[in-house]
Each structure stands twice: as structure tokens, then as C-alpha cells.
């Protein structure tokens, strides 16, 4: 275990040099001023101590309190920024390595992805209160509405499970397809929530693992509608998933086999989105899958925990661990406004953008 970043030198005043970068549209001159600000000895380069002060200021909350960073993480960032390995960081190294990550942190472009807040998951055939966790899906609606009202997102997307009536995930349809010999559960013995293995069709895959759910969110039925009290905004993105009868699609980005993608990633990239905030139903299924693929698509990804409800408490905890390991963080809705404005800057979601930038400029050098 590493030591906490409390050993990092503190910045002696509360001036935030990143405010000036934001106000002056991230010009190279302002990046140079930022660099000079942390060059405490005015030597024209950064020592590790200077670099620590920079990280302290960059990764801090809206009250300018730094977030702790492990000492080995500081060493790794320093090593990766020091392109020529001379134990100091000059301005060109800083600018190449940190220009994009700083802009993403200080002026993020944020999307709220509202996952499957549909009637069938709230009061219908697959209502969460009938699942093992006994969650009330309706509880997310006022929280999501408050987030929409209080936070100035650049993009809001609504996703829908949008299944044809003969969909592979429906328990009622289990006899419509051949069960693979690899399946531990037969069609006759299968129950709701069981996992079966279907023999795949020749144009898709050899086998398809599928959890069986009650028929839900059938296209153009009331159960597929968004909850009546959920705020709808104009010019939102709408994503319909699970439309192929032979494939399920938990994620708002991909089907479960990753054979086809939705329009969501393209629409977010067209709008230059850097950060994705995920809310909705269900935490351990479609919400977690959407968050996973958001990380894989190089978005800084945040799950707003109090705006989600799930199927199984155990599965929710498993997904939390998995998502944290890949760089997605869980937060309460109260902190989201400061994160979206770039005043609250979390180190956990910065790593992927930093590494992606190094790869783009040909400077990625794993230790």
C-alpha cells in the first residue's frame, strides 16, 4: 500500500490558476502562466515538489481542498510526464502531457444518461420491488428531476429497453429457440432470472448466454413508456436498445455480445462530450453495463448512486467494485453541480484521459 498524498506539499494560497485558463479559453499563454505559477523556485522547470503542488491544485474540490493521491501514483504521473527522463519537467513536456487532461477537468463537456426509467421496471412486469433487493424504482424519478433542474448538462440522453414481442430475453419465449447442450438449465426447468444458453444463429454466434426475464418494455406498449413524472427536455438524445429479437442489450452503447452498437457514442462524440453521468434502472444491470462501456469509450464516467435502483444488493456491490477498478466513480447527486462546472475535480476519473492523450501524441510509455 502506498502512502497517502497528505505528504504532498501544499499550495501556499487559495488562488486557483485554472480559473484563469477557463476564463481565457485555455490559450497556450495561459498554460505557460499556469506552469510558471507552480515553478516556485523560478528555475524554468518543475521539480517533483512543484509537480506535487500542481496535482494538489488540479485535483481538488470546490473549496480547494486537495484529494489524496497515493505517492506511487504521483511517481507514475511524474515519470510519464518527464518524456526525456531527466528528473525534471519542462514547459513543453507539461503542455503536451496535460493540456487536454486539464481542459477536461476544468471545463468538462458533460452528458446525463438516463437509463430505462420505464413503467415496466417501476410498476409493471419487471418492477424492481418484486426483485431480490426490493427496491422501489419510482424513487429515482424525483432525484433525477432535481439533477436535471439543478445541473446545466451539455447533453441529456434517455435510453429505452425497446423489445420486439419475440425477444430472446423473455421467459415466455424460452421455447421459441433451441437450448444449447452447454446449458445447465433446460427450457422446461428454467425459471425467471435463470441463465440459459441458447444455440446461436449462424449469422451471429455459436451460443448466446441469456438471463430470462418476464416480458417487459415491448415496443409501443405502455410498459415501455418513460415514467409519467420524469422530466422530458427538448433536443434530448433518445436511444432505443434491445431491438434485435436475437440479442439482448443492457448497455446504452452496445448489445450484450458487442456485435452492434447504438447511436449513443456517435451522438456524444459529435457534441464533444468528455464526461458521462449515469442514472436510472437497474444499477446492477443496464446502468452498470452502460457505465462500463462509457469507460471503455474513454469518457470520464460517474454513476450518481442515489439516482439509481437495482435488482440484487449483492450484484450491486459486485458491480461497484468492478466499476471502481476501471475508473468509474460513485457519487451522491449533491456533489454533481460542482463536478459539472469543473470546480470539483476528481483524480479517479482523470487517469484514462491522461493515458489516452499520451497515446495520441505517441508518448505512452508503460512502466
Automatic annotation (TrEMBL):
Domain EF-hand: 26-61, 69-104
Pathway in which the depicted protein is active: Cofactor biosynthesis; nicotinate biosynthesis; nicotinate from nicotinamide: step 1/1
Organism: Rotaria sordida
Domain of life from the UniProt record: Eukaryota
Swiss-Prot/TrEMBL GO biological process terms: pyridine nucleotide biosynthetic process
Family: Belongs to the isochorismatase family.
UniProt GO molecular function: calcium ion binding; nicotinamidase activity
Name of the protein: nicotinamidase
EC code(s) of this entry: 3.5.1.19
Keyword Cell division annotated: no
UniProt keyword list: Calcium, Hydrolase, Metal-binding, Pyridine nucleotide biosynthesis
InterPro entries in UniProt: EF-hand-dom_pair, EF_Hand_1_Ca_BS, EF_hand_dom, Isochorismatase-like_dom, Isochorismatase-like_sf, Isochorismatase_Nicotinamidase
Pfam families xrefs: Isochorismatase
